[in-house]
Amino acid sequence: MKYCFGVDVGGTSVKLGLFTTDGEILDKWEIPTRKENKGEAILPDIAESLRKKIEDRKIDKGEIKGIGIGIPAPVTGDGIVKNTANLCWGYKEVNRELRELTGLDVRAGNDANLAALGEMWLGAGKGQKDMIMVTLGTGVGGGAILDGRALVGANGASAEIGHVCVNYHETKKCGCGKTGCLEQYASATGIARLARMRLAWDEEPSILRNQKKLDAKAVFDALKEGDAVAEEIVEQFAAYLGHGLANVAIIVDPAVIVIGGGVSKAGDILIPYIKKYFLEKAFFANTETEFMIAQLDNDAGICGAAKLMIDK
Amino acid sequence: MKYCFGVDVGGTSVKLGLFTTDGEILDKWEIPTRKENKGEAILPDIAESLRKKIEDRKIDKGEIKGIGIGIPAPVTGDGIVKNTANLCWGYKEVNRELRELTGLDVRAGNDANLAALGEMWLGAGKGQKDMIMVTLGTGVGGGAILDGRALVGANGASAEIGHVCVNYHETKKCGCGKTGCLEQYASATGIARLARMRLAWDEEPSILRNQKKLDAKAVFDALKEGDAVAEEIVEQFAAYLGHGLANVAIIVDPAVIVIGGGVSKAGDILIPYIKKYFLEKAFFANTETEFMIAQLDNDAGICGAAKLMIDK
Q1: Rounded distance, CA A267 to CA A260, Å?
Q2: CA of A174 vs chain B CAs: smallest distance (Å)
Q3: Are A152 and B278 in contact (CB under 8 A)?
Q4: Which of A55, A163, A241, B244 has minimal CB crowding within 10 Å?
């Protein structure tokens, strides 16, 4: 078969892509995510958008392998979502419902796991079989690929890298209710917090003190200008992240770790900092692990979704 | 095909088993592990022992699926061992060498990963697809099964649960060279250390003070007799183990965690202690994870080895 759709459902928009089964992106577009009435329109809207695309491009439905779809929630191996904070869904059988709406085969997965699969297929992890991806955005997400397949887990909740405990002495709570989660320090929000706390520590001069918006980007921009206080903040962020990733690598034994999400836009300058602390805690078998910055940006999700279906 | 061999290579003896492909153990026996001359006799000895067994039982070689073999070292997906502390091997292509010696198909894996696979096939994890096994012996070993398959990893070193960092403030070194590894606290050696340190803390009376041999078994025996100091030691052990397993579960998302190794002979009394601390740090999606004591004892390795070959 020649074609496959990849769909990535987000809290505000749904990204859709038409792929060849060889990995060429033929088309990509977006539709809004309509969350009213428990998000009941989301899957029908996707089905309708795909129907139009098939019609417009005069594609023979028999040439379509199916639809892969990423959901921002745990998704079981059978495509079942138990609940989603972001989409207002309760229990939903995504594979079955979207198959009934489209007449096409469907395979659903967790969006972070599929982003990792996308980077493995067409991005930074190309050619790899064992890979971790960590997504540093507002929160910290993660995905793991082992032997070329995205991990799923018993509850569809594998590779929740943001909630690995990296500080057993933390007293403040993470959004998940636990304490000491990687997300508390290595997300964009966490980096901004580390920055505020460092600046509050003393009066050491720093260009960060003149910033209107003290966010992760400001910290990495200041680092690039040689600001010593910014470097201290980056060292602290990198220590939490590097130590956390070392603990993940001990379980997954990846060939490559891909750093994605908004924070990764700081670029390759991040890697030596993260690697230094990773090596401090890495098991001897994992010391050759390569670090790379993600390449597919917002397309990772649709790419991985298509790949999940293609590999079915 | 009807038969399969499972082989488990240890530092002092090699365990061998003849299985039906349905999971019945027809025969099991042992031979010594001859480590002299870089362990060059180990694979030929195994081949000769299997040859005799085939002859004695008058088995048609065409009815044998092959040989699964567990090695106490990282083993890549292609059956390559880079070095082993315990067997004195350097680089060894186990699949190829043993295939050439026996004329049978061979598949090698890491012994701890295969023990986990064995427990999933015929032991405590029966019927599960997503499982972690942690082996509490002289050291702490581990294996992970995801979607019914033993994780391998890029270097054949997945699920090294004993070397997850559970104490970022430890200054004493683990055998692996790092600090704060789970193995430093939750192995039989670690438990004995926690016991000595607790007794050294003050003069509180405890039946442990009269023990000739203050080992893990003595601690759990004292716990069963209601000794309060022993309970404190078990709480401390369980905190390190429960927290470490919570960090592993966040990555693997298992349905069940199986506790094996010598320490697990203490039995079900361990489970509530471990579970209490696991839940303290578990991600919300993992709170339903079940805990079980391993059932196959020393047979787990040969069972898992056979299963690896059967699933090939």
Answers
A1: 10
A2: 11
A3: no
A4: A55
pLDDT band of residue B84 (cuts 50, 70, 90) is confident
Q: Number of A to B CB contacts under 8 A, please give it.
A: 134
User: B304 — phi, psi (to 5°)?
Assistant: -65, -35
Residue of chain A whose alpha carbon sits nearest to that of B159: A251
Chain B interface test: which of A178, A248, A253, A311 (most B C-beta within 10 Å): A253
- Number of C-alpha atoms within 13 angstroms, CB side, residue B90? 2
Flag residues of chain A having pLDDT under 70.
Answer: none
Q: How many CB atoms lie within 10 A of CB B127?
A: 8
Residue B208: predicted pLDDT: 97
> How far A180 CA sits from the closest chain B CA (Å)?
9
The H or E element that residue A112 is part of is helix A111-122
β-pairing, A256-260 vs A131-136, is: parallel
User: Coil, strand, or helix at residue A162?
Assistant: helix
State the nearest Cα–Cα gap between A158 and chain B, in angstroms: 5
| φ, ψ of residue A133 in degrees (nearest 5) | -120, 135
Please, are residues A16 and A7 in contact by the beta-carbon 8 Å criterion? yes
